[in-house]
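Why does residue order matter? Because the sequence determines the fold. Keep that principle in mind as you read this record.
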Amino acid sequence: MPGPPQAPHISGPGLASKSTRSGGFLLDKIVNNLEAEIKNADLARAYPDQLYMVKGEPAMPEHISHMLFYISQTKGVNNMLRSAIRATAYLVRELAALAMAKTVIKTVSSNIENSVVTTISPQIAKILLTTKKLEKVNENATSLNDNYSQRIDSIANMTNSVDTN
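Structure:
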């Protein structure tokens, strides 16, 4: 049994010059094939609407994956092509799952962040208020301590002056 097909090679700058693994055709020639029925993204969106998708609904990756699985079951599709279509369907499904997971993570993270901020905001406000009150108490205690120190010094000075007389 022969090994895997030849990997793509680059003959010039960018993606458009890669050849496919299944042959020596340049990708830009395959994409720009004048005989192809589907020549652009607009036609690509319209075609599945006719056969496999709900008309007018956007083609989401999960829908494209489903469509590919249905296409793989079409009569006349040989095993190699069926395997290629199914492999693509699984890869698209995986990409859809990753995109969905990222969306869920972003949404959940944002909701958790908002919930945490909403939950702890009153406590933080209380802590800040208590901090201000404690700072005021500390200022008053320092002032009171200074007053007592001055009085003690004053009494000590009076006592010393009485003792010396």
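Residues 37-109 form one domain.
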